[in-house]
Amino acid sequence: MSRALITGGSAGLGRALAAGLADDGWDVVITGRNRERLDAVAAELGPRVTAVAGDVTDPGHRDHLAEVVADGLDLLVNNASTLGTSPLVTVQDLTSAVLRHVWETNVVAPMALIRTLRPLLRAGGAVIDITSDAAAEHYETWGAYAASKVALEHLTLTLAAEEPAVRWYAVDPGDLRTQMHQDAYPGEDISDRPLPETVVPAFLALIDQHLPSGRYRASDLTAVAA
């Protein structure tokens, strides 16, 4: 049975991916900091989904996740991330503490989790690191988040060059109707953004069709999903 581990799995894209994979016959481990919300999602999605609460920036939690999936893993999705502040601020208004927190959560933690779980990835396994169009564009006040995603993408694709036996994906899901996106625009109406569930078929196509390692946009995978 195929098994996936998804960070930031209690809401938004992480929750949607957990639901889609479970419906597709996967066993899914979801992790996140809010135990109550995480447990509620696992109960709602059914017996294929297991909740393991904790913070991925905590080495002890990463070691615990390795124990949970000790008999093998087919897919790791590094989805958990932070904006740093809400509302967002300009680069010159960023404090060193906020910048460190963003990089610790969005870059250091995913790479550390990869190092921890790499020995458990089965042959043909894949790692998906969630990126953003902010990594390719320059938007006012998005500097900390965007720079962290640039770094995450670069590390992901370097891993693809170093370890071709694993499929390494940096995937931009596009603007979605999530709490993080709402936090980026507090007080604004973001109901025009698509729900996270709309991009799940694109992710499943990427996984099921064993596409080559690389950077992908969910919108570009629509034809593949169809």
Key terms:
seven-stranded parallel beta sheet; Rossmann fold; 8 helices; 42% helix; 226 residues
Explain this structure.
The protein is an alpha/beta fold. The chain has one domain: Rossmann fold (3-Layer(aba) Sandwich), CATH 3.40.50. The chain is built from eight helices and seven strands. A seven-stranded parallel β-sheet has the order 3-2-1-4-5-6-7, with helices on both faces. Helix 4 links the parallel strand 4 and strand 5. The longest helix is centred in the middle third of the chain and has 22 residues. It is globular. It starts with a strand and ends with a helix. The mean pLDDT is 96.
In angstroms, what separates the terminal alpha carbons? 25 Å
Number of DSSP strand runs: 7
**CATH homologous superfamily (4th level) name:** NAD(P)-binding Rossmann-like Domain
What are the segments in which pLDDT stays under 50 over at least 5 consecutive residues? Answer: none
**Structural class of the helices, strands and pairings?**
alpha/beta
Which overall shape is indicated by the principal axes computed on the Cα atoms?
globular
- Counting H and I runs of at least 4 residues, what is the number of helices? 8
Beta-sheet strand percentage?
15-25%
How many domains? The number is 1
Identify the CATH class: Alpha Beta
User: Order of strands across the biggest sheet?
Assistant: 3-2-1-4-5-6-7
Largest sheet: 7 strands, parallel
CATH topology: Rossmann fold
What's the architecture, going by CATH?
3-Layer(aba) Sandwich
What order do the SSEs take from the amino end to the carboxyl end, as H and E? EHEHEHEHEHEHHEH
Average residue pLDDT: 96
